Give the backbone structure.
Amino acid sequence: MGAAGTYFRHIREAVVTIFDGMAVTASHFIRKPYTIQYPDRIPVRVQDTLPFRYRGILDVDLEICTGCLACDRACPIDCIAMAIEKNAQTREILISQFDIDIAKCMYCGLCSEPCPTGAIHHTTEFEGADYSLESLIRRFIAEPVIAYKPKKGPEPDPDVAKLLERGMKYVDEWAQPGSDKPAASAPGSAAGAKPAAAKPTPAAAAPRPAPTPAPGLTAPAGATGQPAAPAAAPKPAVLRPPALKTPATPASTVGLGAPAAASSAPATPAKEEPAASSTAPPSDDGGDKQG
Amino acid sequence: MQTWLDNLIARGAFGHNPPRELVYAIGIAVACAIVLFAVAVPFASVVTWVERRVWARIQSRIGPNRVGPNGFLQWLADGIKHVCKEDVIPAEADARLFKLAPYLVVLAFILPWAVMPFSSALILADLNIGILYMTAITALTVVGVLMAGWASNNKWSLIGGIRSAAQIISYEIPAGLSVFPVVLITGTLSMQGIIRAQGWLPNQWFIFANPFCFAAAVILFVSSLAENNRTPFDLPEAESELVAGFATEYSSMRYLFFFMAEWGNMFIAAAIIVTLFLGGWQFPRVSGSAVVMNALEFVTFNLKVLFLVFVSMWIRGTLPRVRIDQMMSLCWKYFVPISFIDLIGTAVWVAIWPDGNPIAAWMMLALGVAVAGLFVWRVVYFTKRSRMELYFHPTI
């Protein structure tokens, strides 16, 4: 009776397997779904869960940018456009343009590696999609600013010091990847909060008030033993740190000798062209950044 | 419905001596419109939302939850989108048949609502051939499907249409045969008569009356799934195989008509099973007021029908699709013989115990409860084994 046995075996198997299958799916009814309803119904912002070294959208801390153009030279796609003028008398570098085209940026990190202070760094921000191509050019300078001069000793200004510490930590990560320095939480969270607060929306202009040149303001220079500045530490005659907290006075470039530098080097809305200022621009940012 | 209209005429609600036929015609037309637009079509629309959410929870995801509160208006958005779509009729297609086919399928969905027993007084027409009428009308789907497959001027639609027609016709036989055990027990084809022959207690339902009726109920349920082109028998509309089978060339509202008919037929099929085997609208007599009793009976009927609709959605999320040859072999080699055995077995049972056998009913009920307990135990086993976070709230 093989055929009859097979027949009833089929029936039994069908009933048993369907019974079990329905029990499995019934157990799914009382389970929590796996779906993550990004971006509006998640418990923690994804940006806050990313590691410190995550190569997100670039950000520049102009308070500690030395204007050395190392990032500009290092970028393989030339998405960084900077315009600086060196003031011959005061030996100050005036940065009049700092544009990063994040549409072109390939997030390789080659610009943040040679930065002496870690001013240019990647953030954990990745939501940069927007409706216009122009808004993807992040212009960090509204008015020309004086570049930062790294101190011999510790940085006296506490806010700048905090930025510098974070920047140096970032640069050290590049130098020795995987060497997990402790104290990653406090600077990390400060650094994480800072860039997250800085660029939630496309910035057509500099989101933060750029450090204005404060003419004639001297502060006691720090002692030796400043945080390690591996690259270009210029040896100026007069140390004049920029003051962060003075209110921005437009075109307050009294301390600079070059008059045309202020007037003819605004934050240009043009794309990616070095500011054509009548004073002789530094020769190193030549015409190799077109387009 | 007709008796209610008679009462109204007798009480003079329509004037002194109204033409009876006219009152009947208009009154029943109005009542039909109410049933269709307030029950049938909203059900067929909202059930798509319910099905998508149930289906999604089975698959550990969420389902539509953005359009309206918990995604409740998703069906409305889909309907509006479909209405805004271009209505494409293929160039060489038989335009008249092409346009007629969805209407025939929808006709097969609309007509059975006339005998749907919502409660003891809420039935449009208590035909004395009620269940036969329902079974016959649901076979109209075949004409519409064949017409759709042929008129699309598309080889694959034709194949899909013929497969679907073969499936529906084949499964009509076990479905029809499974209706007869109940008719043998009650001796009437009228829907209300069948329900009145049952009681409100589960052991008085016909599904537990004898083991042959239990098997007949299961076969009726599976056959009605097959007749509706529901998974696991949804080969004619399998997206991966035949695009949309007979409905491939249909766009926008014509397409939606086919699927409104399919989802609405879920209710009708479930209603047939509830009427025949699960006691219909029977509810214990807790109140003397007819209104209260009718309301409770209405709720009971709908709850039972919606539970069976939920089971049909649950099966859709559980089982894989059967092949066409497996489907045919299942019907002809397994369902038809078993339905015949049920019929003969019930006939013998009724001959031996004409008034039923309550002990057998209690035993069958105990067996059913035991099976349900086993099922719950298996569910607990699978839940524990998964070690996942539990979540009892239906919406998320």
Remarks:
- Confidence is low (pLDDT under 50) at residues 183-240, 243-291 of chain A.
- The radius of gyration of chain A is 27 Å.
- Residues 45-291 of chain A form one domain.
- The beta strands of chain A are 58-60, 80-86, 93-101, 120-122, 137-139, 145-146.
